[in-house]
Design a protein that fits this description.
The chain is an alpha+beta fold and about 675 residues long. About 30% of the residues lie in helices and about 30% in strands. It has 18 helices and 34 strands. The protein has an 8-stranded antiparallel β-sheet with strand order 16-15-21-12-13-20-17-18. The longest helix is centred in the N-terminal third of the chain and has 19 residues. It starts with 11 loop residues before the first strand and ends with a helix.
């Protein structure tokens, strides 16, 4: 106790995170307004906020990407990163978190949002990032403050420590008691709070709450424990040192309260950040960044319509100057062309950036989100590895105007650079471009960005399902191609044995020709023809698990050719397959769903309604209050599963899948699939 832990050095970076619609952007507005960075706080609903300023965010009235804003408070510089709350846009948050010194988790006293809060706190816990909880909308809370911690604590693996309690004025909250300062304040509209003296019940509640806070701090401070046992009041400075130390060590999570909309509690939050949050030196140590060279971590990539590529980065050590040659952890190199202050539009150029600064670096074309940059002479080791979560929803996209095909390809590459949680796959069989994302809104916003920012109007449709077909019956079939039209004709004649193979065997070709009935130099052409015929079977799908054996045939010394025998092979198989009892196959995937326990029954019902075979469920390892459900499901039923799943789990459920096997589809289901495919194929 008594250490000087409250003397940070350099600019600090704070992430604003929290469940969807908890008030993160409103809090950023209040912070910027109270620190004088903007004249007045904007409104998300009115579309006047500094954060959520993109056309897509304004249209949907929600965060769809991070916003960085720099301000100063009591002569210290702070960059706040407002991160989206929706799980569909969580990659932006996950990529930015390694670079921050601390996080403010904005939440409400709402038990329904507990799973969302748990997901976010788990990210912070796993990364070892110090965090404050800002209990927002306290003026609208229906739960007594002393009961709030009991509601929220299951979401955190470390103790939540209440730093303030409200002062009630009838049914309204008129102020708060700062338990560390031992002072009471009353709110004043858009002004600094006023200190008042406590008496009566408020005084008793304050003493009780302060003692509870000190008890939690004493769990990690023997000297404080002895003072409490001896009924000795600990020095106030020692209490603040304990709060700072235990926050940075990750053994407590302080809880502050307020109303971002009314700008209540904002100044107290800023003071807590100033005195207790770590600085860039501790962040660099956490990431293993050291040495005299400038080291920076890239947490976001933006492509501006007229400004080129910008890489948002946090400088962790050294000094980075404009024009510096940088080595990236990916092995690429690039020269900085412009250093810009991070403040929404990135329009303020700087000559250099020092440790702690959050800046946008211009035209580092080879640098990607997640790269570590160094001014040293060797390739740096990556300071963080952020792997996008597996995508859960797909759509096939194409340019509405064929002349925009190349433009679409370039736009998708840039979109993926900006958001690595989007995945672009080219389906070689259908020639579709398939865009994979984290959910319905994620893909919708991606399409809006393609049109608004990259000028490409896109058509979309559900991606093709990987149906196949096979056969049940063996047959021997002759394939004969004969054509005479003056001069050399065309002649090829083959006899093929066609038989089914065990499931997932694929395709096999063999020959048992005797006596030179088919010259050996034509046999490869026969196989090519067979393969041609199997690309599109009688049901309209690729044919698999088939053995084709060339057993006989005939040729003409003048008219036979590779092309003639290729055509004969194709004709033989095409005529044989309808007689081999063709059967439709559909892909079956193993699906693992994670969901809050209270939603497990709903999830099971969803799976059953989508022809899913439930294999079992168990508690999710290390996640109290969550289950893991395993099932086998047809690929066709997984298509929009995430939409229904998110609806049933308040936006928190997700799944992974992997191909398992192909299964027969018969009866009416097969007829419907074949009928639906024929118009599309035509």
């Amino acid at each position: 106790m008594g250490q000087n832990l409250r003397s940070p050095r350099g600019p600090r970076c704070i992430a604003l995170v929290g469940p969807f619609q908890s008030g993160k952007t409103t809090l950023l507005e209040a912070i910027l307004a109270r620190t004088g960075a903007i004249p007045r706080a904007g409104s998300v609903d009115a579309g006047t906020s500094f954060g959520d300023s993109s056309p897509e965010a304004r249209h949907h009235k929600m965060g769809v990407g991070l916003t960085a804003a720099t301000t100063s408070f009591m002569d210290d510089s702070y960059t706040f990163i407002d991160c989206p709350g929706s799980v569909e846009f969580a990659h932006d948050m996950r990529a930015a978190l390694p670079a921050v010194d601390a996080a403010v988790v904005v939440c409400e006293a709402d038990e329904r949002k507990l799973p969302q809060l748990q997901i976010i706190l788990r990210e912070l816990e796993d990364l070892g990032i110090p965090r404050f909880l800002f209990l927002n909308k306290i003026d609208k809370a229906a739960t007594a403050t002393r009961d709030v911690l009991g509601i929220l604590q299951p979401a955190s693996r470390i103790p939540l420590v209440l730093r303030q309690i409200p002062i009630w004025n009838g049914d309204l909250i008129g102020g708060y008691v700062d338990l560390a300062l031992e002072r009471a304040f009353v709110y004043r509209e858009h002004k600094a709070s006023e200190v008042i003296s406590l008496e009566g019940g408020d005084l008793d509640r304050g003493k009780e709450a302060r003692f509870s806070m000190l008890e939690k701090l004493a769990d990690h401070d023997d000297a404080l424990m002895e003072q409490l046992l001896a009924d000795v009041a600990p020095p106030r400075d020692a209490v603040f040192d304990d709060l700072a130390r235990e926050l940075r060590e990750g053994v407590i999570c302080p809880v502050l309260l307020g109303s971002a909309l009314r700008e209540n509690g904002v100044m107290r939050l800023l003071k807590a950040l100033r005195h207790e949050a770590p600085d860039v030196t501790e962040t660099a140590a956490r990431l293993g960044a050291a040495g005299p060279d400038a080291l920076a971590y890239v947490f976001k990539t933006n492509h501006l319509q007229h400004g080129g590529k910008l890489s948002l980065a946090r400088v962790l050590t050294g000094q980075l100057e404009d024009g510096a040659l940088l080595h990236a952890s990916s092995g690429e190199t690039g020269k900085v062309s412009g250093i810009h202050a991070v403040s929404g539009g990135h329009d303020t150029k700087r000559a250099a950036a020092a440790a702690g600064d959050m800046v946008a670096l211009g035209k580092l074309d080879a640098v990607k989100t997640g790269d570590t940059l160094s001014t040293g002479k060797t390739t740096p080791a990556p300071l963080a590895q952020v792997v996008p979560t597996a995508p859960v929803l797909a759509m096939a996209v194409s340019a509405a105007d064929r002349k925009d095909d190349v433009k679409l390809g370039q736009a998708l590459l840039r979109l993926n650079e900006e958001d690595p949680s989007l995945t672009v796959i080219h389906n070689n069989r259908t020639h579709d471009i398939v865009l994979w994302g984290q959910g319905e809104m994620h893909l919708r916003v991606a399409l809006e960005r393609l049109q608004e920012r990259f000028g490409v109007t896109v058509k979309s449709h559900p991606p093709a399902i990987g149906y196949q077909e096979t056969i049940r019956k063996s047959i021997t079939q002759r394939g004969r191609h004969k054509k005479q039209s003056g001069g050399h004709g065309q002649f090829g004649d083959v006899v093929l044995e066609i038989a089914p193979l065990p499931r997932s065997t694929g395709f096999s070709f063999a020959e048992k020709v005797v006596g030179g009935a088919v010259p050996r130099n034509y046999i490869p052409a026969v196989e090519e023809g067979v393969v041609d015929a199997l690309l599109y079977g009688p049901l309209g799908f690729p044919v698999v698990d088939v053995q084709v054996t060339l057993v006989d045939g005939s040729f003409h010394t003048v008219d036979s050719s590779d092309m003639a025998f290729r055509t004969a092979g194709r004709i033989g198989v095409s005529e044989a397959l309808p007689q081999c009892q063709p059967v439709l196959l559909e892909p079956i995937h193993t699906v693992e769903i994670v969901c809050p326990t209270e939603a497990t029954a709903k999830v099971n019902a969803i799976l059953s309604g989508r022809r899913g075979q439930i294999l079992g469920f168990d508690t999710r390892d290390g996640w109290p209050g969550w289950d893991l459900v395993r099932a086998m499901m047809p690929e066709a039923e997984i298509g929009d599963l995430i939409v229904e799943l998110r609806s049933a789990t308040a936006g928190t459920g997700s799944f992974t899948r992997s191909f398992d096997h192909m299964a027969e589809v018969t009866g009416r289901a097969a007829e419907q699939i074949i009928a639906a495919h024929r118009p599309a194929a035509a």
